[in-house]
Specification:
Number of strands: 5
Radius of gyration: 16 Å
Structural class: alpha/beta
Number of domains: 1
CATH architecture: 3-Layer(aba) Sandwich
Shape: globular
Order of helices and strands: HEEHEHHEHEH
CATH topology: Uracil-DNA Glycosylase, subunit E
Length: 203
């Protein structure tokens, strides 16, 4: 990722998207999760050159409107947030540093079932958001990326609208509580490995 492209993407989507890269920490699981200084071009330790656009992670919608500054999505300091689980799962995989966005923009809702209900009652809403999503992907990526959906709802919409455009793979949403932190990482690594021929490090 070069600096000029990074700035253009930030201007267009910095208030609703981000990158699958976080400040890492050996301390508490949530430590540093909301530290966005890594994206600051004036920070000599910024990560801009390591960002990727050949792979995209796609969620359904923003659950809480607490993004704040640019690239704050998926980097929430909210005590109830679970973004730290995604950080832990992706560290050391080819998805670390990839583009992160939601298919529905400016649509705050915690329950995905409520979002799906709204989409069923208003088909034009899905058409509008998927059209804008295609514009976003074309702007951010130089070629058709591999897409990983986060959760069933996002996966259903992506496959319904883009199965002829992109390779789509599904990851369990990190907000689910049925798996431990390590179990979730192992599951994600297995899916990413099958999709991208990636070999996870042996524990």
């Amino acid at each position: 990722m070069d600096y000029e492209k990074f700035i253009k993407i930030r201007e267009m989507y910095g208030d609703c998207a981000s990158w699958a890269i976080w400040q890492t920490s050996d301390q508490a699981p949530k430590a540093g999760i909301a530290d966005l200084s890594i994206f600051d071009p004036t920070n000599r330790k910024n990560v801009i050159s390591t960002l990727k656009t050949n792979v995209i992670l796609v969620g359904l919608n923003i659950s809480r409107a607490d993004i704040g500054e640019s690239w704050g999505n998926f980097h929430s300091a909210n005590p109830r947030g679970t973004d730290y689980k995604l950080r832990h799962a992706l560290l050391g995989t080819p998805l670390w540093g990839c583009y992160l966005t939601d298919i529905l923009k400016d649509y705050e809702e915690v329950k995905s079932s409520s979002v799906e209900k709204d989409l069923r009652s208003n088909p034009n809403l899905e058409k509008l958001h998927t059209k804008n999503f295609k514009v976003e992907v074309d702007f951010v990526c130089d070629a058709a990326p591999v897409i990983f959906s986060l959760g069933n709802a996002a996966d259903t919409i992506l496959r319904r609208n883009f199965s002829n455009y992109y390779r789509i793979h599904k990851l369990r949403h990190y907000a689910q509580t049925s798996l431990s932190l390590e179990q979730y990482k192992i599951e994600c690594e297995e899916i990413i490995s099958d999709a991208l021929k990636f070999k996870p490090e042996k524990k």
